[in-house]
Design a protein that fits this description.
Length: about 500
């Protein structure tokens, strides 16, 4: 059977879970409210989802707290908790097609990118954090003989995870896996645009043996359910990925409530610096991928292309040719390389940035509008502007769409100055054959992630997070596990 036909047949049969998941059960909201999710490729409704609000959040937090205090998860033997999270990883792999289909229908990501990237990496995330569980240790300090001093690590308690719509399953895995591995209970609030894979994840957890109340899902809007979680007096940590504006609010809500711990990952405006001695063909390939993968809806999208004047025109010409690999199409077709943007609102926002770039004097190289014949979906052409000044809107604001801006520079010092002239500091890359240049620029650039002669490479050992208004804290990596725990000093007087 043709793969595209197969995916469409599966899509026609899909019946996503629509309820909240609280204390081990799928339940209706207290006030029975609903909201509709839409397929961004067709504009057609997908499901009527149960809409949780503050009352439902309170029920979920209470269930999470009961489970935590009971010790059914928080005090489970480390190896037993490891085995359950390993089962979660295997079950994600077993249900890979279903997870991929749900995220494809919800947010428009190509089915091949989901089956080849998001879903297996989500399974790997649970496997990695399961492996960290028995690696947690404390310390006995070197004190006077009259005392025994131990420093031990304990879970925080209840962790609220608020995830974005651009990587629905994978971001849920990044947030939930370390929180659970550390022994916490979790309440997950997925983005209202993309809630369905989180509910399948809840079913997977139940099947894997995660006890009731340890993992809960509350669908709903950020201003209702998300705000209620961040303000809740019995939530010990909020782990958030999303806009800078809302990330700042999360910190405010923490201060207005119980001073809960806050981790934020709030996007960026990542520069890719192409020096004159770079391997230009390879740099162009990575630059194209860094902007147009996932329709540009990537927090670390390398959308600021800083190119040395000696290779500037050649780079632009090669980029325009290489960008032809990305063509908007049906996300259920495995051959599609670019799907629609997640909502009509996001499409209007991105097209507005394109219009502002034209009015501010940037020169359009490719794209610049909606693709013909795709009016039903939220599509935008892969777009590139050259002769961009760092003062222009498209050089300063996060677009979250397939729009790149090429900025010329004369010296490495100028390139670093342009790269650092941003409120953000998430990703960055440096393309050069000179070792001294690579080390110097990596030292001077203000970003949490620096790639040398590559872009978006990494594994689970890589701390993911940024400087400045890209947020605080890190995802992935062992450090993330420890960030979901707290230390206790136990001082024993031996007389």
């Amino acid at each position: 059977m043709n793969d595209t036909k197969r995916w469409h047949e599966l899509a026609a049969k899909v019946k996503p879970e629509t309820c909240l998941f609280i204390d081990g059960k799928f339940v209706d909201a207290v006030d029975s409210q609903r909201f509709t999710t839409f397929n961004p490729a067709t504009g057609q409704p997908i499901a009527e989802m149960v809409r949780g609000n503050a009352a439902d959040v309170d029920l979920a937090v209470k269930a999470a707290r009961r489970a935590y205090k009971s010790g059914v998860w928080s005090r489970m033997a480390p190896r037993e908790r490891m085995d359950i999270l390993y089962r979660v990883a295997r079950l994600i792999e077993d249900h890979a097609d279903e997870f991929a289909l749900l995220d494809c229908l919800d947010m428009g990501k190509s089915i091949s990118e989901l089956t080849g990237g998001d879903v297996p990496f989500s399974a790997l995330t649970f496997q990695y954090f399961a492996e960290t569980i028995d690696k947690i240790d404390g310390m006995v300090t070197n004190t006077d003989r009259s005392a025994l001093h131990m420093i031990v690590r304990e879970p925080l308690g209840v962790v609220a995870c608020v995830t974005p719509w651009n990587y629905p399953l994978m971001m849920a895995a990044w947030k939930v896996a370390p929180a659970l591995a550390a022994g916490n209970s979790v309440v997950l609030k997925p983005a209202e645009q993309t809630p369905t894979s989180a509910l399948l994840l809840a079913r997977i957890f139940a099947e894997a043996g995660v006890p009731d109340g340890v993992f809960n899902v509350v669908n709903g809007y950020g201003e209702d359910a998300g705000r209620a979680l961040a303000l809740h007096m019995d939530v010990d940590k909020i782990s958030f990925t999303g806009s800078t504006e809302v990330g700042k609010l999360m910190m405010v809500y923490s201060g207005q409530s119980n001073m809960k711990k806050v981790t934020t990952e709030c996007g960026g405006k990542s520069p890719q610096i192409i020096m004159g001695d770079a391997d230009l063909d390879t740099a162009v390939t990575y630059a194209v991928n860094g902007i147009f993968t996932n329709q540009g809806e990537v927090c670390s999208a390398g959308s600021r292309l800083l190119v040395h004047e000696s290779v500037y025109e050649e780079f632009v010409e090669k980029f325009a040719i290489e960008a032809q690999r990305f063509q908007p199409g049906d996300p259920l077709d495995p051959a599609t390389t670019m799907g629609p943007l997640v909502t009509q609102e996001q499409q209007r926002k991105v097209l507005g940035y394109i219009d502002s770039a034209k009015s501010e004097g940037a020169k359009l190289v490719i794209g610049g509008g909606r693709p013909s014949g795709m009016d039903a979906g939220n599509y935008v052409q892969p777009t590139l502007f050259k002769d961009v000044k760092e003062s222009m809107t498209i050089a300063r604001e996060e677009i979250f769409g397939p729009v790149g801006a090429v900025i010329p520079f004369k010296t490495g010092e100028e390139a670093i100055a342009i790269a650092n002239n941003s409120i953000y500091g998430l990703g960055s890359s440096i393309w050069t054959k000179d070792l001294n240049t690579a080390h110097r620029m990596a030292r001077d650039i203000e970003a949490g992630l620096v790639w040398i002669n590559c872009y978006e490479h990494g594994d689970m050992t890589q701390p993911w997070g940024g400087y400045k208004q890209s947020g605080q804290g890190r995802d992935k990596c062992f450090e993330t596990m420890l960030a979901h725990m707290q230390t206790k000093s136990v001082w024993i007087n031996l007389g």
